[in-house]
Amino acid sequence: MIHVFKVDDVYGVVDTNSGLVHIVDEIIYDLLVDEGFKSIDKIQDIYNKYGQVTVDEAISEIKYLIENKQLYTEEIVIKNKIKPVVKAMCLNMAHDCNLKCEYCFASQGNFKGQRSLMSYEVGQKAFDYLVKNSGSRVNLEVDFFGGEPLMNFDVIKKLVDYARSLEKDNNKRFRFTITTNGVLLDDEIIKYINENMDNVVLSIDGRKSVNDKMRKTLNDKGSYDVIVNNFKKLVANRKEKDYFARGTYTAYNLDFSEDVKHMRELGFEHISVEPVVTKPEEKYALTEEHVNTLKEEYEKLAKMYVNDYKDKDKKFSFFHFNIELDGGPCIYKRSVGCGAGTEYIAVTPEGDFYPCHQFVGETEFIIGNVNDGITNELIVDKFRNVSVNDKPTCKECWAKYYCSGGCHANAYNFNNDFKVPYNVGCELEKKRIECSIMIKAKLQDEV
Amino acid sequence: MIHIKTLNKTKLTENISVKGCGECQTSCQSACKTSCTVGNQKCENK
């Protein structure tokens, strides 16, 4: 299986099963589109366009790649050898929030339940479970999430200390991330985060008007003016550690590249702006009618990425344009997908386990708790059996080893079936991959 | 090659006997939290 595409003036070819990406000229592009080089009629047109000698030379290069298993590579059937063990946790430290964002999948912080904070004891038990059930895995990932996790900051600090106390004896290394809306950030908390969190995700949607339309304070005012200076201060003291200024775009800001640009102007270099995940009936949901506009927007953003790359004051990274062509995940990882419910679980303040943060509050998806461990294998099995080649649509898709089958929550929300991916998400993901390759091609000497 | 330039140095299908350690980051644990993207994770088994 191959995929042939053009973004800006770059012609690309993805050979799905080998993972090889070829940048080609227009002649090869014309020969490979719709497998033109195999059709006598089409090839005659191409001869007429470029001349026979040149075209024959190009065809010989195509044949060379095919013979050397670099094009139209056959699928290899692999038996997955990653034994899933729980190694990553999303700790919902607070089912409460000091903002009420309109698109919040956590129902303005309470996840459709009572407002509550995770106790130190529940967090301890969660970490004990994680250490005990992570087998030989060394790296354990914990995201302090919410609602707004900083509403429970004292417990976070105690839990970080507790996790560190478990590392040496158990040969584990905890990596912490915190996702915050920024309202409660002060000098003390910023210092703590910068010293203790391996990554920090700062929630802001971009331009003030865009951010404030969705991210509102409890008094129905915009949150932009409250959070921007806090985020700037945190980032100024972050040094080389990871962070993302992270926004959500919706049907209200299809021109989200302007929000990326705005965030860069605020001084944030590492940016992620991602499509909203919601039910299709919401006014701000992204649907099929938006796809072409959004594809153009990604292309516009990719061109901006390239143009700004050599200017240190403008250069930025965009999470979804990161692509690892050589140092990326192996084919096993690419086959099994995100790991929700198998290697990644979300924990509520009450200690319930869910397959991932997106399902919290949908009580039929509770898979266990901190006291009894995983008890609902029926649900876990549903997540275990959705590798990319288990999904008919994905199996035939050229992009399957980049997205690994997409987001289960999206599939469930839109199609009520884990094996049927959310098509809008697929279309956008494919466009992002093409844009990422275009960027690699243009900056190949620099990136 | 005059008409084709390959960007990667390795194939997905190479060295698979020593791959599959499972140490790499869980994808939703990075920035995203909403949209699965695995191809941008780094391999921890170099």
TrEMBL record, chain A:
It comes from Sedimentibacter acidaminivorans. NCBIfam families: rSAM_more_4Fe4S, rSAM_six_Cys. PANTHER family: ANAEROBIC SULFATASE-MATURATING ENZYME HOMOLOG ASLB-RELATED, RADICAL SAM DOMAIN PROTEIN. Residues 83-308 form the Radical SAM core domain. It holds the Pfam family Radical_SAM. Keywords: Iron, Iron-sulfur, Metal-binding, S-adenosyl-L-methionine. The lineage of its organism: Bacteria, Bacillati, Bacillota, Tissierellia, Sedimentibacter. The keyword S-adenosyl-L-methionine applies. Its cofactor is [4Fe-4S] cluster. It comes from the Bacteria. InterPro entries: 4Fe4S-binding_SPASM_dom, Aldolase_TIM, rSAM, rSAM_sf, SCIFF_rSAM_maturase, SPASM_CteB-like, Sulphatase_maturase_rSAM. The keyword Transmembrane helix does not apply. Coiled coil: none annotated. This is Radical SAM core domain-containing protein.
TrEMBL record, chain B:
InterPro entries: Six-Cys_pep_SCIFF (IPR023975). It comes from the Bacteria. This is Ribosomally synthesized six-cysteine peptide SCIFF. It comes from Sedimentibacter acidaminivorans.
